[in-house]
């Protein structure tokens, strides 16, 4: 992949760390931030980004970081891809807002049609546009209940679906997301995730002891768990869920918010197993950083509800729509292939690293540019994330002891090689203290 020339293109080789980290301006800014922002924000480590270009982030002190994080798997086309920027700038000078839910914005329907075109579903689809992943999941819960006239929803232990009340009720990656907020949405059950043998739980526990299958509206699953630790299910697991859904008239909802939008080398992660869902929730990488969430559903489901059943003022904002249309073009125009090639390169390099540090690195897993490196302890994973940051490489923890590697899909072979080298040095430093 060649990278389009951008504003940091003439910068020195990245990473380029020129201050201690965090630097003086970052420290001052963080003090300011902590006076005004909600303390509920989790804040992984003290990076204060001010500019981005491709896979590079510049912080407030002028340090250049290689971004293996993409703003939590969001900037799929790289930071400020020139095509995306141009479309947003043109659109901002034309029309910024006019409530696609109450009026007929051309871009709104064009984006819905484009998302329906790329859906991993054979039946013609229709699309609901919101602003975020959690809204896409909320819409899926509402439509599933409405269309089936059933109440119960099954999600998975280790799953993450967002933080508004419906989606956080499905979330079961960490108990802190529920702490102090109960009771959650009633009628939600959590199944074990990932192994074909786990599917017995549905017959042996759920349907036998808790609720009859004909009262279950939907099974909501991340085809690859994200926040829960980048967990790839066994082959046969998602096929098994589809079979359970088929047997009992239950809807299969794929939460592709983190794993979709080309990240695994296919548009949708569930396509790695040739499984067709009934509803797809997408957000994050689908609009390169503009806030867009979408629920894509089979037309026969979507046409069960009528005007007023669901809507939102900002969903399908014109700026988010043009960003999404441009993003889809870029994903189909080579970025998905790049995700596969660079993913193979990174997985191979990380597996070599695991051979060097087998007691510290427990597992390296993933598909395409959705890679998890599991360490022996939570503290070790945190220490590697910190040591990477100190060297100018941005990563992010997930699950209990996993560091996730989810760079922009524009990452070049050279950038992947540099990132591997820096990550290896970080692991070596942490392993030496073990
Ligand atoms: C799989 C998944 N679903 C839903 C969400 C919620 O998305 P948002 O933060 O945009 O509300 C996330 C966010 O990380 C996610 O990873």
- At the first level of CATH, the class of the largest domain is Alpha Beta
Globally, the shape reads globular
**Helix proportion range:** 25-40%
**List of distinct ligands in this structure:** pyridoxal-5'-phosphate
Widest β-sheet, arrangement of strands: 4-10-9-8-7-5-6
CATH H-level superfamily title of the largest domain: Type I PLP-dependent aspartate aminotransferase-like (Major domain)
How many structural domains? 2
Compute the number of helices: 12
Supply Rg: 21 Å
Largest sheet: 7 strands, mixed
% residues in beta strands: 15-25%
Let me know the average pLDDT.
96
Low-pLDDT windows of residues: 1-5
Tell me the CATH architecture of the largest domain.
Answer: 3-Layer(aba) Sandwich
What is the name of the CATH topology of the largest domain?
A: Aspartate Aminotransferase, domain 2
Given the helix and strand composition, which structural class is it?
alpha/beta
For the termini, the CA-CA separation is 38 Å
In total, how many beta strands? 15
Q: In sequence order, what are the helices and strands, one letter per element?
A: HEEEHHHEHEHEHEHEEEHHEEHEEEH
Describe the 3D structure.
37% of the residues lie in helices and 16% in strands. The chain has 434 residues and is α/β, with parallel strands linked by helices. Helix 3 packs antiparallel against helix 10 and helix 4 runs parallel beside helix 10. The model is unreliable at 1-5 (pLDDT under 50). The chain binds pyridoxal-5'-phosphate (PLP).
């Amino acid at each position: 992949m060649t990278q389009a020339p951008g504003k940091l293109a003439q910068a020195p080789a990245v990473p380029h760390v020129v201050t201690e980290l965090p630097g003086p301006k970052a420290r001052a800014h963080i003090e300011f931030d902590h006076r005004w922002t909600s303390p509920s924000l989790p804040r992984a480590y003290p990076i204060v980004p001010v500019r981005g270009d491709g896979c590079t982030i510049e912080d407030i002190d002028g340090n250049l970081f290689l971004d293996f994080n993409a703003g939590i798997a969001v900037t799929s086309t790289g930071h400020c891809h020139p095509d995306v920027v141009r479309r947003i700038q043109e659109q901002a000078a034309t029309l910024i807002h006019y409530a696609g839910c109450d009026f007929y914005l051309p871009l709104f329907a064009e984006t819905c049609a484009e998302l329906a075109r790329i859906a991993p579903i054979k039946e013609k689809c229709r699309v609901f546009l919101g602003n975020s992943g959690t809204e896409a999941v909320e819409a899926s819960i509402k439509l599933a209940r409405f269309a089936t006239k059933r109440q119960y929803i099954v999600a998975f232990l280790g799953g993450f679906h967002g933080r508004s009340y419906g989606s956080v009720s499905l979330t079961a990656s960490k108990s802190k997301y529920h702490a102090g907020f109960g009771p959650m949405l009633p009628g939600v059950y959590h199944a074990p995730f990932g192994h074909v043998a786990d599917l017995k739980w549905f017959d042996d526990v759920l349907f036998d002891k808790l609720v009859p299958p004909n009262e279950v509206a939907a099974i909501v699953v991340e085809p690859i768990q994200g926040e829960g630790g980048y967990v790839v299910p066994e082959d046969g697991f998602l096929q098994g869920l589809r079979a359970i859904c088929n047997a009992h008239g239950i809807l299969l909802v794929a939460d592709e918010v983190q794993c979709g939008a080309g990240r695994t080398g296919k548009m949708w992660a569930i396509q790695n197993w040739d499984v067709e869902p009934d509803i797809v929730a997408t957000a994050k990488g689908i609009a390169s950083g503009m806030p867009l969430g979408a629920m894509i559903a089979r037309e026969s489901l979507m046409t069960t509800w009528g005007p007023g059943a669901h809507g939102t003022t900002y969903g399908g904002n014109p700026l988010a729509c043009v960003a999404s249309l441009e993003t889809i073009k870029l994903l189909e125009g080579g970025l998905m292939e790049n995700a596969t090639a660079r993913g193979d390169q990174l997985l191979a390099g990380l597996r070599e690293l695991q051979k060097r540090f087998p007691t510290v690195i427990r597992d390296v897993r993933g598909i395409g540019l959705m890679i998890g490196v599991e360490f022996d302890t939570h503290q070790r994973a945190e220490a590697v994330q910190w040591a990477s940051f100190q060297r100018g490489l941005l990563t992010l923890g997930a699950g209990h002891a996993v560091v996730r590697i989810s760079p922009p899909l524009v990452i070049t072979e050279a950038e992947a090689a540099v990132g591997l080298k820096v990550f290896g040095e970080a692991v070596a430093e942490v392993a030496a203290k073990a």
